[in-house]
Amino acid sequence: MNNTDYISIASLNQYAYCPHRCWRMFCAGEFTENHYTIEGTSLHDRVHTLGEAQREEVWQVRAIWLKSQQYHLIGKSDLIESDSGELYPVEYKRGRQGEWDNDELQVCAQALCLEEMTGQSISRGYVYYAHSHQRQFVEISDALRQETLDTIESVTELLETGKMPKPIYSKRCKGCSFYPQCLPQAADKVGRYREDE
Questions:
Q1: Where does 26-97 show beta strands of DSSP type E?
Q2: Which tens digits make up the pLDDT trace of 174-192?
Q3: Which residues pair with 68 in a beta bridge?
Q4: Cα(103)–Cα(147) distance, rounded to whole angstroms?
């Protein structure tokens, strides 16, 4: 990675979900489908139709590219809205509200890009969950901004070193398309087996 390279906004979400998954996708260039990823791709195929609309008092634009030179971020937005002149990002996800907190990082990263591109301060965003048809409010707080900056730093280091993080088992593994490849529980069992020899 050099100074002209940009980090995908989506990689921040993946890193916060699982650093090992992020490494597989953005360092090793791997991608494995399962029914969750297929649902997510289908949702984004529908959402990522470039266009703009007016819904009552809210102006909407879909599928525009966001970029930050300061943070070396780039990515395509699902939806940017403007209500009474206030801009905010809306990220679409296939799951249900409150499943994981990594989606908020992606919204904050989009807000950082919007701030740089427009000169406006962004104080909020939303995650729209397709299964529940509900939006979750995301406050672009100082704490979330710092967490996002820390994650940008971690992803930058991951991309620069290419060092593979160890897979660690958690509840999130059950829905991960890479689970059959990384087998985090098996690695832990092998480590314990060797210690018992």
A1: 51-55, 58-62, 65-68, 73-76, 79-83, 86-93
A2: 878 887 778 766 655 555 5
A3: 73
A4: 12
Q: How many CB atoms lie under 10 A from the CB of residue 134?
A: 13
Tell me which DSSP letter residue 94 carries: S
Give the end-to-end CA distance of the chain in Å, rounded to a whole number. Answer: 42
Would you call 124 helix, strand, or coil by DSSP? strand
Q: What are phi and psi of 30, to 5 degrees?
A: -95, 150
Q: What are phi and psi of 38, to 5 degrees?
A: -65, -45
On whether the CB atoms of residues 102 and 11 are closer than 8 A, the answer is no
Written as six digits, the tokens of 44 are 């984004």
Q: Helix 9-17 and helix 19-26: axis angle, to 10°?
A: 140
Is residue 197 packed enough to be buried (19+ CB in 10 Å), middle (13-18) or exposed (0-12)? exposed
Are the beta carbons of 148 and 135 closer than 8 angstroms? no
The answer to whether the beta carbons of residues 90 and 103 sit under 8 Å apart is no
Residue 35 in this model has a pLDDT that exceeds 70: no
Q: Give per-residue pLDDT as tens, 52-68.
A: 677 778 999 999 999 99
User: Which pLDDT belongs to residue 14?
Assistant: 93
Q: In what helix (H) or strand (E) does residue 128 lie, and over which residues does it extend? A: strand 124-129
- Contacts (Cβ under 8 Å, ≥6 apart) of 76: 48, 63, 64, 65, 66
